[in-house]
Specification:
The chain contains 11 helices and 12 strands. By secondary structure, the chain is an alpha/beta fold. Helix 3 packs parallel to helix 4. The longest helix has 19 residues.
């Protein structure tokens, strides 16, 4: 093989033993997962907000952000269930660029996967202990999920991964809700096929084991817009789009039909300020249609301490080094506005 084997990494069991969590927090995580499941199944009227940085590039800034978010969550907990985005691995279209905290726990230094595994686990444990949040991540590498399986409450399968067989099968074995994004092509049938696969039972190889998954009844839709052949952004958050996906759900026997709308990425054309307007439009669509109201369970918002983004070597504390994000003051105001209108 044309690759260098640098070192053998610890298995998830070893990492968990080195950085354990208490039975108290294990129970709290289960309660949070149950809260999410109740919302997705329609047993709860709360609204989900998956909100946080495009990428978790700095542990201290992320924890600072989460501490602010905690104060807001406490004020809106009767209406809103906040699950912070703490995305520690990032898909790169060309394979180049910052791939997240897993690869580079310090963006200014070379890749160090061992340090990355330890850092992301420590970050999630700090989030749990300091803010009592159980966070969301993107399942970019399905085999790595076991390093964090006792800490996360939600995962998303990204637009570039949703067609991948292994992502679909691994999702069918998760014990937490998983959101399936529409692919970058915009083909909604691909997303629905992924959900069908994730909700089914499968036999496959996982971490050198032959496993049998039980199926994940809480696999659901994430709409994030797409890009056409001319490279133009095509949104899919409008009223008509939400009706279309609702109708697609009705033609299936899928469990717990639910839609989360990603208000950034191709839906906003990566114009982070548009997230405010788009969020308002989706809430308006919910008011106009009982079907959409029952189907749309939440939003995904990219938010950090400072507006916008900066280069990887930038020095602005709490500003994204990947996609531009909504700053804290605007984010806080938006969360309160959403809480008043759901």
């Amino acid at each position: 093989m044309n690759m260098e084997f640098r070192r053998k990494l610890p298995i998830p069991k070893d990492i968990k033993e080195m950085f354990p969590i208490s039975s108290e927090y294990s129970k709290k995580r289960e309660e949070k997962v149950k809260e999410l499941e109740d919302i997705l199944a329609g047993r709860s009227d709360k609204f989900i907000l998956l909100i946080g940085p495009c990428s978790a590039d700095n542990e201290e800034a992320v924890l600072d952000y989460l501490s602010r978010l905690r104060k807001v969550q406490d004020k809106v907990e009767d209406r809103i269930c906040i699950i912070p985005r703490v995305y520690t691995n990032k898909p790169r279209t060309t394979g180049m660029g910052y791939k997240g905290m897993l690869h580079q726990p310090d963006p200014s230094r070379n890749e160090d996967m061992l340090r990355g595994i330890v850092t992301i686990r420590e970050t999630y444990i700090r989030a749990m202990e300091e803010t009592e949040f159980f966070c969301a991540d993107e399942m970019l590498y399905p085999e790595n999920y076991r390093y964090l399986s006792d800490l996360l409450s939600y995962v998303a399968v990204g637009a570039r991964s949703v067609e991948n067989q292994f992502h679909r099968l691994a999702s069918s074995g998760l014990d937490i809700p998983v959101g399936m994004k529409n692919p970058t092509s915009g083909d909604l049938s691909v997303m629905m096929n992924a959900i069908t696969a994730a909700q089914g039972s499968h036999t496959f190889i996982y971490r050198n084991w032959e496993v049998v998954s039980k199926g994940n009844p809480y696999a659901h839709v994430i709409l994030r817009g797409h890009t056409n052949k001319r490279g133009q952004y095509i949104p899919n958050y409008h009223y008509e789009d939400l009706k279309t996906v609702s109708e697609m759900y009705r033609r299936t026997d899928l469990s717990n039909p639910a839609i989360i709308v990603d208000v950034n990425h191709a839906n906003s054309g990566k114009q982070y300020m548009e997230q405010i307007r788009i969020s308002r439009e989706i809430l308006q669509s919910k008011r106009l249609s009982e079907e959409i109201d029952s189907m749309v369970k939440g939003l995904m918002i990219e938010s950090y301490i400072e507006d916008g983004n900066q280069p990887i070597n930038g020095s602005t504390y709490g500003q994204s080094i990947t996609d531009p994000c909504l700053g804290w003051e605007k984010s806080e105001k938006l969360i309160f506005e959403i809480a008043e209108n759901v």
